Amino acid sequence: xxxxxxxxxxxxxxxxxxxxxxxxxxxxxxxxxxxxxxxxxxxxxxxxxxxxxxxxxxxxxxxxxxxxxxxxxxxxxxxxxxxxxxxxxxxxxxxxxxxxxxxxxxxxxxxxxxxxxxxxxxxxxxxxxxxxxxxxxxxxxxxxxxxxxxxxxxxxxxxxxxxxxxxxxxxxxxxxxxxxxxxxxxxxxxxxxxxxxxxxxxxxxxxxxxxxxxxxxxxxxxxxxxxxxxxxxxxxxxxxxxxxxxxxxxxxxxxxxxxxxxxxxxxxxxxxxxxxxxxxxxxxxxxxxxxxxxxxxxxxxxxxxxxxxxxxxxxxxxxxxxxxxxxxxxxxxxxxxxxxxxxxxxxxxxxxxxxxxxxxxxxxxxxxxxxxxxxxxxxxxxxxxxxxxxxxxxxxxxxxxxxxxx
Length: 406
Hints:
- By secondary structure, the chain is of the alpha/beta class.
- Helix content is 33%, strand content 18%.
- The protein contains 12 helices and 17 strands.
- Helix 7 (165-181) links the parallel strand 6 (152-156) and strand 7.
């Protein structure tokens, strides 16, 4: 979720814009209101991320028809690339003059759905970095809430902003102001995940929220791009994050889970981890079994099969790099919302993770020359002593020799 969101094409898809504008025009001609009809919080908690401007955005209405999905997490609102304290889409398209995203939102609402908007993300300049204080940061975000009549908003606080203490204080302060000024607003805060739950900067963000007396609907972690491989590593991280929430806020286990969320990445991650449909089902079972508040993923732009299905072992912003039917992963969000999605014929080609017999690579483990591990659907052999060197990350002269797919 984090790196691919920085790989923006910079070109809005004409088909999406045309479809959205047509729907918007039809809605206005019929006299139908473009006002938001709030969904239940469970739908906002299940909304997967969709980039409406970049990464070959799919048609939201088609996703709704095929999967049963009703809510979308639109990404990302940033500060202007040239600086300033006004909201833009991707740093380039001012929210104040936007019509393209507004038309997409109207098309979604015309079909009985709704949207949340995500602010921040990986890369780019965030409003918390450019606005002077929490009040001005909140005022910038209020423009987004007011323009699109939002009932939900997501603060995606990660690199490089979450390393800036002052910026995070402004973001948390802004979130608290918005929560107070918009009764019933569903607020999620998303940050990086680690095997321990979240890292130093994530913990500092939680401490800032505690210091300011701010409690969102959930704090979500992204357990990928950090040495994860499959559902077991993710549920372990969620368990550890629960302990962090308990120790930070003084909550019991059930209360912490009720304020905890999961934000995954479907298919092949930026670092070559793989998360298949089976992994999503396992994490979904964990989330519902522990009564967690949120289950989402990055992204709907990637929720379709590549050609070839494994994308030659590469990660894409527009497809998943695993065998799937279109919108397979969206259906897990639908299930989290409590709805039974339509059935589709499963793919006949097995996902590239295969059935690895070597133990999964671990960032914490020490390996000696000749040791083998499984990672990203491949078996790897260590050439010499190593620790915390991701297989495949250092090219052909690296410590790991690729022995091929499992």
